[in-house]
Amino acid sequence: MNKRRLQITDVAAFADLSPADKRALRRAASPMTYPKGATIQEAGSIDRRLVVVVDGVVQLDDGSQRRECGPGTAFGDAGSYGQSLVVTATALSKVSTWQVPSLVIASLAKRNERLMTWLVSEPGEISLAG
Asked: DSSP string covering 34-53, please?
């Protein structure tokens, strides 16, 4: 069975981007892999990137609640606000991600109402397109 790997442009929040903006997003996105037990981001730190889980299971812990998330989940600084992160993300298995600088996401959002709406709302779990 040939399972297609999730692409950054498969995320629903990016579905309405223009072809040129989708190309820019693909160019800016970097694949990263984490071993089981690795800290992907730590609450209280400043980390100017949006992380989208491609494969594996991540635990998000905000200090009062923990939840497990999988492919299609996004977390991090999506809007280039430079604020301290509110959750610690830990790989519960081998995890593959796409990571995009928050400045790129903020720039794309200026040209795309759906993405801007998503950024203004609670940027937590986002679903896959299609």
From this structure: E-TT-EEE-TTS---EEEEE
Which stretch of DSSP H or E encloses residue 123? none
| CA–centroid distance for 25 within its chain | 12
Rg (CA), the chain: 14
Condensed to tens digits (0 to 9), the pLDDT of residues 68-105 reads: 999 888 888 766 566 777 889 999 999 999 999 988 98
Say how many residues make up the chain. Answer: 130
Distance CA 76, CA 3 (A): 27
Domains in the chain with CATH codes: 8-120 (2.60.120.10)
pTM of the complete model: 0.81
Which DSSP state fits 119? H
- Residue 107: partners with Cβ closer than 8 Å, 6 or more residues away: none
Cα 75 → chain centroid: 5
